[in-house]
Amino acid sequence: MADNITNRVQNSTERDPLLGDRKPRNDEEAHSNADHSNSDEAEPLIKEPTTSELVLVLCGTWLGSFLAAMDSTIIATLTAPISASFDSLSLVSWLASSYFIANAALQPLSGRLTDIVSRKWGLIFSNVTFAAGNLICGLAQREWVMIFGRVVAGCGGGGLTAISTFVGSDLVPLRRRGVWQGVGNVCFGLGAGLGAVLGGWINDVWGWRKAFLILVPFTVLSCILVTCFVNIPVKQSERSAWKRIDFLGAFGLITTLVLLLIGLNSGGTIVPWNHPLIYTTLPLSAVSLFAFIYVENTHALEPIIPIKVVANRTVLAACFTNWFLTMSIFSVLYFAPIYFQIKGLSTTQAGIRLVPQSLGAAVGSISTGLIMRWTGRYYYLTAAIMLIFIVANVLVASFNLDTPLWVTIVALGMTGIGYAGMLTVTLIAFISAVAHEHQAVVTSASYAFRSTGSAIGITIASAVFQNLVSRNLQTAIGDRQGAADVIRRLKDNLEVIKHLPEGWKGDVQQAYMDSVRGVFLTTLGISVVGAAVSLLMREHTLYATLSRK
User: Fold this and answer.
1) How far apart, in whole angstroms, are the C-alpha atoms of residue 342 and residue 401?
2) pTM across the whole model
3) What is the Cα–Cα distance from 45 to 275, expressed in whole angstroms?
């Protein structure tokens, strides 16, 4: 059935993808059409597949996205037991950030590379890499091996998430794209929610290693489905695939992101901010960024990220909206389980309490997709979504040791609605603001912003938490006999709380609670900035056919 899709390809020229015979609805739409009229490259035009064909193709990609989402949050409820195994709570930051650094480094490449070598081979490579990384994590006996496994898994997981989105954009018109992306986001959200619950349950029953190993056979199944059903044609060129790949740009982008995230992730946690590592990595990252921009603007025949396209007002605003809101949501996702464990809950119970976030994500994804299909508009919808997300973060920032369960359910559910709604809306804004030939590369650029946002958000949250918890513990119990040793052990292992001397537990819990609240207040501020940036996006036409007519 996948071959039917390939056979129904027309090599039409799409010079003015957003120009139609009708008059634009408003000045912003006219501006949008003017932007698109500059595209003059021939682009394969795929006729719309039937619903059954589309489901078969997308199921394989959605399974991979589901597994990648599960892997990104399965670690949330495992940070405490993994850190306890290696006697280092500071490992929390690297367990998450190493995965997202790899995501950020490779996701921007996936758009252009799969334009050249095909979506199928990109997904096969991503599945294999993802499985290998989780196998390494499950067998790791040392910290550096664990971190290496997270890096390898991150390389694969980033591709699984991004390329599945490209496939949907290849096959579904803009007007209906939001609904199908909503379904894809539900799969991603379900994976993210089950990851937290499954991670905690597996840890309590079999140990944390099995949580990584169980992902491997399902990844093999995803690879088989992709091989059988994903067969989207690539743009033809007289140049060979190797000559079309922008190796210099790829190297520059990877170098920029890796140096930036290593510097930010190390500062204040692994080494002091005035350490030579920080003074080296951050300036070199800036130099590499300028070199990358120069290469992409002047030398690359097929740039990894076309700078002029990304500089489009709507694209840039949507990228930064993804960046800020991802910083916020992942800080909440990684510290909400710590909040629940401070209250004395097990990792399984903490994971279950993250389920409302996933349910909210499902509601946010589907509802925003349907609204855009019915109305063909998204600007005011974006404003409503941002308001929901800010209110949710206000509620999260109000958490304390006595907060009722229903308040945490409502708050985390609303964060899911706001974040998933934002992802769906900004995706449509991305691909409607540019010509068809650029939709994969701008989407992959957005994933780079999301991945760096994940890593930077967790880094900021971890730095805030580590600094506050040291001060708050010292204030709470620093004057008691043997406090220095207890504080040292508390900073590396939350389980120590359960074995504290009589009369210490309440003060220590409150010290931790004040530290976590500092994290949540920080994420609230970040979400407000993201909401303000989102209002800079323009409204573009959502066409009902792939030909955008």
Assistant:
1) 8
2) 0.73
3) 53
Contact 381, 425 (CB under 8 A): yes
How many whole angstroms separate alpha carbon 195 and alpha carbon 76?
8
Q: Give the relative orientation of helices 247-266 and 91-117 as an angle to the nearest 10 degrees.
A: 170
- Which amino acid is located at 378 in the chain? Y
Instruction: Tell me what the pLDDT averaged over the chain comes to.
Output: 79
CA distance 172 to 154: 27
Is domain 44-232+302-482+488-534 annotated with CATH 1.20.1250.20? yes
Of residues 324, 30, 381, 17, the one with CA closest to residue 178: 381
Q: What is the mean pLDDT of residues 236-263?
A: 77
Q: Where are the domains of the chain?
A: 44-232+302-482+488-534, 246-301
Beta pairing, strands 45-46 & 9-10: antiparallel
Q: What angle do CA 133, 337, 390 make, to 5 degrees?
A: 105
Do 85 and 420 contact (CB within 8 A), yes or no?
A: no
**In the structure encoding, which two tokens stand for residue 431, read together?**
């691909």
Cβ-proximal residues to 303 (8 Å cutoff; 6+ apart), any chain: 112, 246, 249, 296, 441
DSSP string, 34-81: HHHTT--S---EEPPPPHHHHHHHHHHHHHHHHHHHHHHHHTTTTHHH
* CA R_g for the chain: 23
Q: By C-alpha distance, which of 384, 449, 370 is closest to 178?
A: 370
**Two tokens, residue 505:** 């537990």
Low-confidence winner among 289-298, 367-376, 435-444 (lowest mean pLDDT) = 435-444
Which pLDDT score is estimated for 384? 94
pLDDT at 110 over 70: yes
Token readout for 119 is: 């979506």
Distance separating alpha carbons of residues 59 and 401, to the nearest angstrom: 42
User: Residue 10: in which H helix or E strand, if any?
Assistant: strand 9-10
With H, G, I as helix, E, B as strand and everything else as coil, classify residue 383. helix
Q: What is the DSSP letter of 275?
A: S
What is the reported pLDDT for 45? 46
Tokens of 129: 């890499």
Q: Are 38 and 14 in contact (CB under 8 A)?
A: no
Give 481's Cβ-side CA count (13 Å radius): 2
Query: How confident is residue 506, by pLDDT bands cut at 50, 70 and 90?
Result: confident
**Phi, psi (rounded to 5 degrees) for 267:** -65, 125
